[in-house]
Amino acid sequence: MERSRKQVYLSPDQDEELSKLALATGRSESSIVREALSEYLAKMRKEADASPNPLSKLLELRVETETVDSSDQHDRDLYPAPGAVRGEGIS
């Protein structure tokens, strides 16, 4: 499993509790932090899904767009034909 490195700052009490828990369970401090973070993120995701905040749904929207290569007609778009009204040549 690929992992990315993160640095967190713990209070002295948190550091001590984490060390004690790791020693008592025979697990690494990192695995305990990863598990706790996974549980927290799942809880927060569930709360966010239940949120009546319409902006949270906006983050899930996917918009289909057509890719356009503007380099094909860049002269036409930048320099309208002589005598044309500005903006007339742009489609």
Name a few traits of the molecule.
mainly alpha; elongated; 91 residues
Average the pLDDT over all residues and give the rounded result: 83
Distance between the termini: 49 Å
Global morphology: elongated
Estimate what percentage of residues fall within beta strands: under 5%
3D architecture notes:
The protein is 51% helix and 0% strand. With 91 residues, it is mainly α. The chain has a domain at 12-62. The mean pLDDT is 83.
Layout of strands and helices, then pairs:
Elements: H1 12-25, H2 29-50, H3 54-58, H4 74-78
Care to give the gist of this entry?
By secondary structure, this protein is mainly α.
